[in-house]
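User: Predict structure, ligand flavin-adenine dinucleotide.
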Amino acid sequence: MKKVRKLTSDVLILGGGLAGLYTALNIDKSKKIIIASKEPLGLSNSYLAQGGIAGELNTDEKVLAKHIEDTLIAGSGLFDKDAIKELVYDASENLKMLIDLGVPFDVDENGKILLTREGGHSTRRILHAGGDATGKNIMETLIALIKKRENVTIIENYMLYNLIMKDNVCYGGELISMDNEFCNVFASSTLLATGGIGAIYKDSTNAHGATGDGIAAAYRAGAKLRGMEFVQFHPTVFYDVIGNIKGQKFLISEAVRGEGAYLLNINGERFMQKYDKRLELAPRDVVSQSIMKEMYDTWSQYVYIDARHLGKKFLMKRFPTIYEKCLESGYHMESDLIPVAPVEHFGIGGVQIDLDGETSITNLFANGECCSSGVHGANRLASNSLLECVVFGKKIAQKINEKPESEVESWDIEISFSVNNNNYHPIREEIRETMSKYVFIVRDTEGLHLAQRIIDRHYNNLCKHPFTTVDYYRALNIATVAKLITDAAEARKESIGCHLRIN
Ligand SMILES: Cc1cc2nc3c(=O)[nH]c(=O)nc-3n(C[C@H](O)[C@H](O)[C@H](O)COP(=O)(O)OP(=O)(O)OC[C@H]3O[C@@H](n4cnc5c(N)ncnc54)[C@H](O)[C@@H]3O)c2cc1C
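Assistant: Predicted complex:
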């Protein structure tokens, strides 16, 4: 048996991205909060966000109706119109709060907020910061503020592996550190904000830690999940022709197309007019699927983004991070075509929440990329995800603030710990390869059945031989989330949004 540290708190927040930190900042200072994060704060998808955060500062009904309509069209009308209304109507108050907190959104010479456009948006309604470093600027502001909060304790490098449960009530989380030290945190309210699922694919734009841990833990605890088959593939991710680096890939933000860049096939021809009248600014599912078709027809692994006509001065000022990154790989955006291809980018499905951010488990909330609030339908509208983190973060905080003070219940949990020498690396790699091959943009029955066989074999073996180690849970979570996505994709026979079934 291994000794376990025990902590109690009013609130336990699992995850230190935007979903976790913004919620924490909106919770009353009288409540004790523990934020546990698998990686140091700053290593998250939130930090990597480039394009911006969508939302209307203008609360005119007609203006808001357009944002609702664009979101519904991009998401193929699936899931929850009420959630979309909340997202759009509450945008302005939360964007203003970000401004008040000190996020340095880009402004023109008169101090007016600059807005950009991305695929699926009928108008310019996306705020950005540092040109293409929106996530970095938001997160640096919020991390500095959270570190000053006396009611908040931050535990970095600790990973949630299981929720503490009794009779469908959540009492907190069991955590394990990267060197296998244990800590059980008991809390009256627990928030899952563990982020996305990109790292269960071979190639993704996501942070390495995005292995869907919160979704897997919630599934083990019996929470309702929704929409797991919907995985968004970003159309324009830098394709490193020389290095072809595996793992975390660099994004060429949709805002580059929003500012007027084109897509060309390897023969130098524009092609989006063949597929959609919105051209390069069609929603992401349409652009990704069109690129796949074009790559297939031209026997190529990539297409090009052409931003040459935007000019060096504009590109360097508006997209400093992307410009620099391309340069590091030998590409000058003002004179070279940039090779791009679609890769995994965003997990739309997750732990189902209601309009207050509550899951089907009592005292358990979820926010951000690990949840399914219903706002993204079958395909997320670009830049609506940072907005989702803040809108639902505020709602969750309000719900927690309304809770009467109560004694936090806690008890001892025994943990049998044994070091094992199992090498889980090949299992993780085989699952990642399988997901990228058979549960990618174009899906068919034969491929999905093959993927199910491979993933089920690993999942069942892992369940039969449990170990309480970080390495074991990394593999189990990847296998669990891969299984959930593949089973849901197999079950949904129709093509809708980013789920394209060819048979
Ligand atoms: C390259 C890139 C660009 C993007 N650009 C945009 C954009 O322009 N606009 C937009 O709206 N969206 C964008 N997105 C999507 C958006 O960034 C994410 O959906 C959003 O930031 C998710 O926030 P989050 O807080 O849910 O997750 P994250 O920011 O990923 O945070 C997750 C946190 O959970 C922690 N964690 C994970 N597992 C555990 C565990 N087991 N225990 C404890 N902690 C855990 C992590 O360490 C991290 O602190 C982009 C995403 C990427 C990858």
